[in-house]
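INTERNAL AUDIT FORM
Audit reference: QA-55
Scope: verify that the stored structure record matches its stored sequence.
Auditor: D.O.
Record contents follow.
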Amino acid sequence: MSYLLSPTILLLREGTDSSQGKAQIVSNINACQSIVEVVKSTLGPRGMDKMIINENKVTTISNDGATILNLLDIIHPAAKALVDIAQAQDNEVGDGTTSVTLLAGELLKEAKSFIEDGMSPQIIISGYREALRHALAHLREQTVSFKEKSKEEKRDVLMKCAGTALNSKLLAAYKDYFSNIVVEAVEHLDTDLLDKDLIGIKQVTGGSITDSFLVDGVAFKKTFAYAGFEQQPKYFENPKICLLNLELELKSEKENAEIRIENPEEYQSIIDAEWDIIYGKLKAIIDVGAQVVLSKLPIGDLATQYFADRNVFCAGRVQKEDMERLAKATGAQIQTTVNGLTEAVLGTCGKFEEVQVGAERYNIFRGCPSSKTATIVLRGGAEQFIQEAERSLNDAIMIVRRCFRTNEIVPGGGAIEMELSKILRAHARNIQGKQQLVINAFAKALEVIPRCLSENAGLDAVEVMNKLRQKHAQAADGKYIGVGIDTPDGIVNTYERFIWEPVLVKYNALSSATEAACTILSIDETVKNPKMEEPRNRGPGGRPRGGPRKAGGLGGLPGLANMAGMKMK
């Protein structure tokens, strides 16, 4: 009967780890739930911070979802999907990173019970995508446009949106102060591009957080300077500014350079030529009328003293980002040579000065005529505090930029999620079969945002959720009712309280969370290839690299090392 036995077919390398089926999907969901539990308590104005210490003993304190997930160094392949969507949300709109993670985790949590009951993952995926399509269609109907408003009214809306973004950040107590700074900084950008990189944020330890200020131009820390720098003027009005990508110093010959000379006069002529070249460059800059000279490359002690004698300010080794922002603000063109240098390539500004900010000295260019850039100088007592403040401002800047472009907002505080949940529940009643259960599960998952907001604020989440459902079902202004962390009953009209968010934040969060959940639900098998340690340690021809020989010498005789009484290491 042996001919009836089919042979075993091996498709994978021996030692390959493979898991599949329902258990694998549930395992992936559980891994994602662990990630959600980490960031859940950071949501909202009363969210808690996380302290993360990396392998280099660098401590980071933050409540930003994307920052926390990046620092956790997650290795689970399915859980990494949540890290990716949080990072994508941060790059695209700047805010809502924790919300998108919570939404994806809650969608997976709702799907888990369906999977365990035997429902096909494809039915769940189909239902989630149908619910997303319906939710996004109605999201546009809930928006409030301020496109037709006056300039002052638009600025007020932008201030409110920046304040909402800062509500859950470290700067919440100073949101009015920094909202004005953020909006003013974004207003300095080119309205067509709104390039965030043209807003510089400089950190200066010391002083109060309210000592932070905005420069309507460019500010950067004083660079390394040679002798003679202190003799240079530190204040100009309407100066001519020259930007260079050029070294202005005497360079030593390379080690392999060789020059053959017959007499000392030839050597002296070489030295004179070097001095003539550097002096020719410096004279060309002075002749064109430059009063402030900046370069990406070093400006040596000779050039520094030369400029000081002629009342010209100079600074070398200026960072690339600062040089590019200076070019945008002053209208100067960065030059790689001084040959043919003309006044047309020079820039200008209203006022240049070098000032003391805390323990540092800063070069500040104000009143730039073609100003398309701005600089925020952040002050604070601790370095970790300033770093978190910078992350908070980055989120607020991104939000204001998006508001500039979309001109549409939705109520925050969980109000829009509750309204969409109500709409989806009504839509599900018209659906037959299992899809009705899935769409209801999607609607229930949306409620995770107001529920977490109330829990983190110390409110009774069950009571608050019941009140929100009642208001959204019965009240005329129900679609604006959200969680109120400082009201007696825990609910508030978020539109009247100016708790606004750009519609793009919610649009992106819903889309990204649903796609991530559908991707994880579609994975029913994971295959891990075994580590190939042995082939990696072998040299050409399969021979081991180094190491002691197990056999003796030639012909099986004792090895030479053993014969000599030596130990091989």
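Auditor finding: record pair retrieved intact. The two ends are 57 Å apart (CA to CA).
Action required: none
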